[in-house]
Amino acid sequence: MNAFPLPGGIGVSHLRAYDWAAEDGVCGGSPHLHLACTEAYVVTGGRGAVQTLSAGGYDETPLEAGVIAWFAPGTVHRMVQEDGLRVTVLMQNSGLPEAGDAVFTFPPDVLADPAAYAEAAALPKTDHAARQRRDLAIRGYLPLRQALRDGDPEPLREFHRAAVALVSPKIGDWVPRWRAGALRAAELTGAYLAALAVGDGSHLERSGVRVAAPSNPDGYGMCGRRAEYDIDQEGRQ
Predict the structure, then answer these.
(1) Rounded to whole angstroms, how far apart are CA atoms 42 and 94?
(2) Which of the residues 58, 101, 162, 225 could staple to 96 if both were Cys, CB 3.0 to 4.6 A apart?
(3) Rounded distance, CA 87 to CA 28, Å?
(4) Residue 109 to residues 32, 33, 58, 120, 140: CA-CA distances in angstroms?
(5) Is 83:163 a contact under the CB 8 Å cutoff?
(6) Domain span at 74
(7) pLDDT digits over 106-161, tens only?
(8) How many other C-beta atoms are found inside a 10 Å radius of the C-beta of residue 115?
(9) pLDDT tens digits for 21-39?
(10) CA distance 140 to 16
(11) Does the residue 36 lie in any domain?
């Protein structure tokens, strides 16, 4: 069957939030942001929260089944576990986060050294490694949060600048992924509308159901144990 993207060329995964306590006593994931992608949490079970840092300040949003919360690029987010929190994640521009559109709130000295950052951010393969990565992100996150609470947004701006410096060299790889994924999905809708306007419904011959099971049902994500899907997002016909 021909490949076909998820609606809008999005990415999807399922998360079980980490239940390890950080140095501030809170259980949860690794604070981070995305620079080009909006992310959404669709809460499917349990209770928890998401802590966010943005130009508007610090906030904590309760999460329970039925809630949808989403974050614009630049929003630092930290998933907090309270009682069996389960979340389906919808990610704009599938493929970009995997290509590097996610920067952890590591301390400034790590952010300033691309090699040190890459080593610290590497995909963990054990609980110990995932917890180490989370704890390092918390070490940089807590001062950012305190500064916002004190009414000082400059440390968050400095973090934004450091994140941009880290990802700028990767943009040449991101653009083709975006064109083949999210942009192509939008262009397909335009092509269908143009065809339908002149009575051409030939694309309906390519109808059918597509099914995917997790390609990695219990990986280590930024916020928790992550069920991943390997879905073709290029919309080939």
Answers:
(1) 17
(2) 101
(3) 13
(4) 16, 18, 23, 12, 10
(5) no
(6) 9-188
(7) 999 999 999 999 999 999 999 999 999 999 999 999 999 999 999 999 999 999 99
(8) 7
(9) 999 999 999 999 999 999 9
(10) 23
(11) yes
CB 33 within 8 A of CB 75: yes
| Residue 97 resides in a domain | yes
Neighbours of 21 (CB within 10 A): 11
Classify residue 110 by burial, with Cβ atoms within 10 Å: 0-12, 13-18, 19+.
buried
196 is a domain residue:
no
Query: pTM of the predicted model, to two decimals?
Result: 0.92
Q: Give CA–CA dist 25/39, Å, rounded.
A: 26
pLDDT at 230 over 90: no
- Total domains in the fold of the chain: 1
- Residue 82 to residues 48, 93, 218, Cα–Cα distance (Å): 5, 30, 20
Spatial CA neighbour of 9 closest among 132, 87, 91 = 91
* Residue 47 buriedness (CB in 10 A; 0-12 / 13-18 / 19+): middle
In terms of Cα–Cα distance, which of 91, 94, 89 is closest to 41?
89
Q: What is the CATH number of the domain that holds 139?
A: 2.60.120.10
Residue 237 pLDDT grade (very low, low, confident, very high; cuts 50, 70, 90):
very low
Residue 195 is assigned to a structural domain of this protein: no
pLDDT digits (tens, 9 = 90+) for 170-224: 999 999 999 999 999 999 999 999 999 999 999 999 889 988 898 888 899 998 9
